[in-house]
Specification:
CATH superfamily of the largest domain: Glycogen Phosphorylase B
Distance between the termini: 18 Å
Number of domains: 2
CATH architecture of the largest domain: 3-Layer(aba) Sandwich
Order of helices and strands: HEHEHEHEHHEHEHEEEHEHEHEHHEEHHH
Number of helices: 16
Strand content: 15-25%
Structural class: alpha/beta
Strand order of the largest sheet: 2-1-3-4-5-6
Radius of gyration: 21 Å
Number of strands: 14
Shape: globular
CATH topology of the largest domain: Rossmann fold
């Protein structure tokens, strides 16, 4: 897999993609029939997971016949009988459930028991730790028990990071493939941003941004973007501004933090932006933040934003929690993070942003981002990983 091949120069990333393509073609020649797949997305059509599955479906050469169902089209409970009816009608060789959620997983388990179809799961989170650290103890218990059962019952596990793959393999799970967060390079690319910078009042400043769903953890008193707002309070003497793209239940809390730290005039909140328009906002950013707690859940994911930052040549600043992400240093920076909420991290981030302004050559590393995304995190590479896993599941290997 990707983390097992030494990567020392930017050209090595393309070598990895080429090797994977050759291996996929050799393995897929042995499939004796065009397999039928049924995809189930445990969210909505326009969610990150929904777009991800559609992109895989377009590129999967081993699955010309496949359907996609979305949980949010029917509701959590009604989705289960909808999935079962589709499985009975199509009799797929494999049901692939994207995102850990009981609607698709319960339906997939029942379909396998009733009709013998294989079950594949795509997941980028360690659900037990995620619920536990947010104080949802009953959900943590139930999801942890379901996860233990699926390690033996499922025929394919497609995970987001090499660490997660190794972790599952060490616990006896056999058919595991690493399919990281992927990016469509034809849709996300750097574009001219001067007009948007001026319209947002960001001209002449180093722009540091966060993009995503602004969730709030009451237990940790932490919301996505908290470190950006607090870091800006240490940088009042410099021309640095923040850009927050997204909405969610934590938006009010983040805006309250901006008032609390007296940086309201230095943070621009633009709300939710359609995915097709994101390239313009990425191109406005000089630095993009990805802040993950230093726990098991953070080791299990590369996040969907990292490949998108790289595709648009945004300089990523990410918390250093797992060695498989060390390639980020070729196009960005990794900063230490301690525990679930590192109180010192905003000051550490502020010191690094100050360093960027004092040595602008640091930002030049971001020009390698798009090449790295093409070699490691494009949909073409992710699809080849997934094809190999589907092949092994259908063949019972």
């Amino acid at each position: 897999m990707v983390d097992e091949i030494p990567l020392r120069s930017s050209g090595d990333y393309l070598d990895v993609s080429h090797q994977l393509a050759l291996k996929s073609r050799r393995e897929l020649r042995s499939i004796p029939y065009p397999p039928r797949l049924l995809f189930f997305v445990n969210s909505g059509r326009e969610s990150t997971d929904g777009r991800r599955v559609r992109e895989f479906r377009k590129r999967l050469s081993c699955a010309p016949e496949s359907d996609v169902l979305y949980r949010d089209d029917h509701g959590k409970l009604r989705s289960i009988p909808v999935l079962l009816r589709a499985a009975r009608r199509l009799r797929p060789h494999l049901i692939y459930v994207e995102l850990f959620g009981y609607s698709g997983l319960v339906g997939g388990i029942l379909a396998k028991l009733l009709w013998g179809c294989k079950l594949g799961i795509g997941n980028g989170d360690e659900v037990f730790s995620t619920h536990l650290k947010n104080g949802r103890y009953v959900r943590a218990l139930l999801s942890g028990a379901l996860d233990l059962f699926l390690r033996r019952f499922a025929d394919l596990s497609a995970v987001w990071s090499p660490y997660y793959r190794r972790w599952l393999q060490a616990r006896g799970v056999r058919n595991v493939v690493c399919v990281p967060g992927c990016v469509d390079l034809s849709c996300l690319a750097p574009v001219s941003s001067e007009g948007l910078r001026q319209r947002l009042g960001l001209e002449g400043s180093l722009v540091v941004g966060v993009v995503g769903n602004l969730q709030y953890s009451r237990k940790l008193d932490m919301v996505f973007g908290w470190d950006l707002v607090e870091a800006l309070s240490y940088l009042r003497d410099l021309k640095i501004k923040g850009l927050v793209v997204g909405d969610g239940p934590g938006l009010d809390r983040l805006q309250a933090m901006a008032k609390e730290f007296d940086v309201v005039d230095r943070v621009v909140f633009v709300g939710r932006v359609p995915h097709d328009s994101l390239a313009a906002y990425y191109s406005v950013m000089d630095v993009g933040l990805i802040t993950l707690s230093n726990d098991l859940d953070a080791k299990f994911t590369w996040t969907a934003k990292l490949p998108e930052y790289l595709a648009c040549n945004v300089f990523p600043v990410m918390t250093d929690t797992e060695r498989s992400r060390r390639f980020v240093r070729q196009c960005g920076e990794l900063l230490p993070f301690v525990g679930l909420k590192d109180r010192m991290y905003p000051s550490r981030l502020a010191a690094f942003l100050r360093h960027i302004l004092s040595g602008p050559k640091t930002l030049e590393r971001r020009k390698h981002g798009r090449e790295i995304a093409r070699g490691l995190m494009s949909f073409e590479v992710g699809t080849r990983h997934l094809e190999r896993g589907i092949h092994r599941a259908i063949q019972g290997r």
